[in-house]
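HUMAN: You are asked to prepare a plain-text protein record giving the amino acid sequence and the C-alpha cells, both parts labelled.

ASSISTANT:
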Amino acid sequence: MQLRHRGPDKGKKMPTGKYPLRHLARFILLGLYTGTRAGAIASASWKQGAGRSFVDLDAGRFHRLAEGKRKTNKRQPVVRLPDHIVAHMRRWQRTPRPGKGPPEERMPEYVVEWQGKPVASVKTAFASAMELAELDESASPHTLRHTAATWLMMEGVDLWKAAGFLGMTVKVHEGVYGHHPDFQGEPANALKNRRRKPVSLVKPLVRPNYTPDAPERLDVFYTTISSR
C-alpha cells in the first residue's frame, strides 16, 4: 500500500507494484536471526573491502566487524549464518537491482541496499513499518537484537554458546535476559524425567553409628551436569 499524492485518489492508500520497504524486510531477517547490531548489517557486503562487513556465503559465515574498523567493547565476532538465512541471501545476491540496463550491471554489492547504495539507517523505514502494522509499542531496529537474545534464552540454548553467537559476555546475556524462566526448561524437565536409581528394600539390621534418637535417613540426590 502507498499513499497517493496526486490524482482523484489523492490522500488514499492504494495498492502499488513498488516495494519501498523491501530493504527493511532483509534487515529485519538478519537482525532477528543473527542478533547483529544495525551498523554491521548496514555495511554487510558480498565483497570484502574497507569499511565493509563481509558475508561469506560459501562458508555460511558473517564477518560482522567491518574491515579496517578496530575492535571495541561492543563485540562483533564472526557468526555462523542459519541455513534458511543463507538460502535467502543467495537469492538476494543473484537478484539485479531494479532499473534499466543489463542485469549484470545491476547486481547488488551490499546485502541491504536503498536505491543502489548501502543503507545508512533504517530508522525511518522501521517507523513506517510500525505505523503500517498499527503497532503502538515503542521499538527500534535494536529491538531485533533484543528479540534474538530473548528467543535464544527461551529455547534453552547454553548461555556460553548464545552469548558467543550474539557477541556479548555471558554475564550481560544472563543479567539482561536471564529473567525469562523458559531457559530453565532443561533442568526442569530433568527433574521430571529423571531416571530413578534402584534402592534395595533390604536393609542391614545393624548400622554403624545408629541410635534410636538419631535414625539414619536415606537421601537420594539427582544431579544434572552440563558442560559448557
The chain has a mean pLDDT of 77.
